Hints:
The protein is 52% helix and 13% strand.
Amino acid sequence: MGLLIDRLSLFGWKDLIEVAIIAYLFYRLLLLLRRTRAMRMVWGLVVLGLFGLFVDLAGLQTLHWLLSNVWAYIVIAIIVLFQNEIRRMLTQLGRTAYFRSMRRGGDIDPIDEIVTAATGMGAHRHGAIIVFERQMSLRQYADAGITLDAAVSYDLLVSIFNPAAPLHDGSVIMRQGRVAAAACFLPLTLNPRLSRELGSRHRAAIGISEETDCVAVVVSEETGKISIVVDGRLERDVDGQALADRLRELLGLVDLEPEEEKTQVAEDVPGAQPAGGMGK
Length: 280
């Protein structure tokens, strides 16, 4: 007990800062891994760590020697297996909000373009799947498709998912407000409890949302109905307005203009109405 008190007395403010930084980094990493299959590996490492603590306390020398030699390789395995998540976490530092650069640069609202395209394709029974990258990288799926890196527009999306187009059989991946790639194939969910009525597009959308934290929009080729998939959950039969509101909520889109600035602009323009009404 006295030894513990002596060690705590040596704990200074620098140690507190180090602990806070390490805790924050682990917290961010866990956010990236939550509700994914990689999280099972994290729990496996936790169990292995607890077992190592038990070995130390019990004084089991042989197991202690074995674990001490294995941990070095485990650290390398963690870096290799979680390289995408670690890189994604680092690149998120200082990154601006989703779609922010596009909304500053022009009058076209990418969400409106996507919603208009989805409702139009639904009316014509053209199947589609649009996947929005969030915190976790979708680069491995985008690289396997056709790279576009194009500005989002109604005409582009409708052209891609036209049944006669060569790129329609696959998904579109959105990254930072742009169409990153098309004709991307996604992993199908292995959930046996799903309804057999769901086709390959819905199963692919559910599968990628189980693997990552993305948001997927699916247009059914059979019914023309629109669905949103997030965290492995399917929200079916969504109309245009609900789709726009839900996407803005899930992607963290906010109005970048201060309320008082919009009010001032409305007062300066003859015949304009003050801000606060329903937008487009």
